[in-house]
Write a structure and sequence with these properties.
By secondary structure, this protein is an alpha+beta fold. The chain has a single domain (9-95), classed as Aminopeptidase, CATH 3.40.630.30. The chain has helices at 28-36, 46-54, and strands at residues 9-10, 18-21, 61-65, 68-78, 81-92. It has a 5-stranded antiparallel beta sheet. The radius of gyration is 13 Å and the shape is globular.
Length: 112
């Protein structure tokens, strides 16, 4: 199974201003700060977030609002079960919650 996300995917049913996209190494610091603001999520090292934003970028998602990272989903394909995506963390800034992007209304941002 090959999983990927396009570099910039605008998803209208989330918000006209929120862009879901593949994370980049440049997102690392913002992701680190976002996760710190989302208890009870476990805090990772900046290096771990760098790996999530680079090595696992094709199976993770950054949500961007007016240039700021307001959401992040980290995941990876399980090595001995490449048809299974394991989602590690879902972080959403407090002010960006309840915009219709979660739960059963989540957009199909990862194509297989």
């Amino acid at each position: 199974m090959e999983a990927f996300i396009s570099n910039k995917v605008k998803v209208a049913n989330v918000s006209d201003d929120i862009i879901l996209r593949q994370p980049t190494a440049d997102d690392c610091a913002a992701v680190f700060e976002l996760i710190e603001q989302c208890p009870p999520l476990g805090k990772n090292s900046r290096y771990c977030n760098l790996l999530q934003c680079s090595h696992f970028a094709t199976t993770s998602v950054s949500a961007e609002y007016k240039g700021d990272i307001v959401g992040f989903i980290s995941g990876y394909l399980i090595p001995n079960r490449p048809d299974t995506l394991f989602v590690c963390q879902v972080a959403v800034a407090k002010y960006a919650r309840a915009q219709g992007g979660g739960g059963s209304n989540a957009p199909p941002y990862i194509a297989t």
